[in-house]
Amino acid sequence: MPELPEVETIARSIRPELVGKTILSADLLWAPTLAAPSVKQFKQQVQGQKVRDVSRRAKYLDIVLKDFHLLIHLRMSGDIMIRSSKVVPEKHDRLLLNLSSRKYLAFNDTRKFGRVWFTHDPESVLAKLGPEPLESGFTSRWLFENLRKHKRQLKPLLLDQTFIAGLGNIYTDECLHMAKLHPLSLSKDVSRKQAEALCEAIQSVLKEGIRRNGASIDWVYRGGEYQNHFRVYDREGEPCLMCGAKIQKLTVGQRGTHVCPKCQRLR
Predict the structure, then answer these.
(1) Rg of the Cα trace of the chain?
(2) Is 59 marked active-site?
């Protein structure tokens, strides 16, 4: 958390505040937040950089500058805020970018897991990521052929960012339920028809998550409403919205996993 819909929502919300603005200076309040380059080099080179765009790749924010890319991975507890320069920084702010608009961007990260890369070449960080599930190249045919190449349980494979980029624990549970597939099913056993259903479910769930500004399930991410429309996630013991059976919680690949025992039979 945050996953693709939450990161996409953040990118869309901060884009109007950043595009066209110039970074006047940077304050790094917790040095390990910066994965690369050195603190000294970063502070020198980011100064005077104009923001051209804000985009997303998988769970990474990509702030596109005149000569560089600023990649931010929020990990477990990261958040991005744009504040007036008159507002005092908060306790868990790790990086501040002072802007020409008399505002500043704050990367707030309570658990300190988030990381930032300042680089000419974003592919040096992003190259190993799998395809974007909302782009045209992600098709049911691609999914079927690539599922068959692996002999892995479905949920851990879908969580693997080198297989598909952007899915996390919440949306994987939701997608598998919509596709009526059990998370412990082996990928090599998925039929072409099931792959079509899974592809459709992935795209449908992610689009709906974005439409509802992501899910707000705790103090980490605020503002979304998709949690009010979960099919199975965080609904242990509640009736399945499709069949009425009680939702069960399992552990799959060391991750809490929610399934309907009737809709998602393990064959």
Answers:
(1) 20
(2) yes
Would you say residue 220 has pLDDT above 70?
A: no
Report the C-alpha gap between 26 and 64 in whole angstroms: 16
Closest CA relative to residue 232, chosen from 140, 169, 154: 169
- Three-class DSSP category at 28: strand
180-214 tens-digit pLDDT: 999 999 999 999 999 999 999 999 999 999 999 99
CA 23 – CA 68 distance, rounded (Å): 12
**CATH number of 4-126, picked from 3.20.190.10, 3.40.50.720, 3.30.1380.10, 1.10.8.60:** 3.20.190.10
**Of the candidates 221, 219, 216, the residue with the CA atom closest to the CA atom of residue 233:** 216
Q: What is the pLDDT of residue 221?
A: 59
Out of 83, 112, 148, 255, which one is annotated catalytic?
Answer: 255
Kindly state the average pLDDT of the residues 87-100: 97
Q: Are 75 and 113 in contact (CB under 8 A)?
A: yes
Q: In the annotation, is 183 catalytic?
A: no
CATH architecture under which domain 140-259 falls: Orthogonal Bundle (1.10)
> Is 115 one of the annotated active-site residues of the chain?
no
Rounded to an integer, what distance in angstroms lies between the CA atom of residue 127 and that of residue 143? 19
Beta carbons of 203 and 131 less than 8 angstroms apart? no
Q: CA–CA distance from 233 to each of 68, 202, 255 (Å)?
A: 38, 15, 12
Active-site pick, 21, 59, 115, 235: 59
